[in-house]
Amino acid sequence: LLLDTGATLILIKVGNLKAETLIREKPMALTGMTDQVKTIGKIRARTGRLGDKEIRHTMYIVKDDFPVDYKGILGIDFLQKQN
Fold first, then answer.
1. pLDDT of the chain along its 83 residues, tens only?
2. Which 8-state DSSP code applies to residue 15?
3. Range of the domain at 26
4. Which phi and psi (to 5°) does residue 79 adopt?
5. At 10, which CATH number?
6. Domains in the chain: how many in total?
């Protein structure tokens, strides 16, 4: 994943999800620096553990043809939540 401190959200390409992953919500358009990004939906996924507590985070799902050479983008919201 690309770490992008200028991005505010986590974007993940759909091909990186397990087949049984349930994508929630409706598609939406996000505004990027150069163009709109259309999502397929979003998921709430475990991103780590802190002691016995699970850390979960919302991830927005995009098509596999999203124009980055990575599986997705980690935005500043992820870093802030991980502290």
1. 999 988 899 999 999 999 999 998 889 898 876 678 899 999 998 877 878 888 888 999 999 999 999 999 999 988 787 66
2. G
3. 2-81
4. -65, -40
5. 2.40.70.10
6. 1
